[in-house]
Fold:
Amino acid sequence: MKKIVLSLAIVIAITFGLYSCSKDVIQEPNPTEGLTKLTEGYVPGTATKMELYSKDASINSGFSKFYIALYDSVTGARVDNAEIQLMPMMDMGMMQHSAPYENPASSKSVNHLFPCSVVFIMSSMGGTWTVKVNVKNLSNNKEGYLTIPLTVTEPVKSKQKSFTATHNGSKYFISLIDPVAPKVGINDMEIAVYKKVSMMSWPADSSLSVTLTPEMPTMGHGSPNNVNPVHIGKGHYKGKVNFTMTGYWKLNLDFMSGAAVADSTQFFDIEF
Ligand SMILES: [Cu+2]
Structure:
């Protein structure tokens, strides 16, 4: 009996020993866990394969975050050093226009992925969206690009607004980034602001100040303890919004340029 117990113990020890060993060697947390692969393709002339991921399976108009994974097309090894440049374009038949975007912040991957963003200022109802992704693979110094067609849908509650400013006549585009999952209580609030300079130039804008006034129109009340979004970089403004109860909320936003009113007509609808 003792012998059996002993040999059983040895078998268990070996099994677990081997298991943890092999686990150490081959298992690494999957960087794309929880993400959806939208498309993949070879970047011509770069010996590089590209995969495009996002958190959601469908792309809505507004601020869309993407994650790009690159692989050596011969060995399959991950490429973690690359310069990536985006160029979104919408073909509306009679004319073409670009949109705001954020290239990866570094040529070094973050957990094997290159995070980047495109602001789709309208849905594919009005035309055809593509994103040209230019890749310079720094492990072989080859450069090329891949043009990806994307279908952009309009969500029930829009997260993308625009206005023509009264103080300078320029057109501004506002994206609602947070709250993604609104809850009762204090929520992080984030918007991004872009200025349309031309059909091909949509830089981030940090010149405006923002006042946030949430209200429940059907109940005739607002909420206390909100924090106006302030600029934190790249046109992103962060603040806090307080939802004192569930239901339909209107997030009124007033934009000022110094002492001059830029716009006081915009709002985002949130219902939860
Ligand atoms: Cu368009």
About this structure: The CA atoms of residues 95 and 199 lie 9 Å apart.
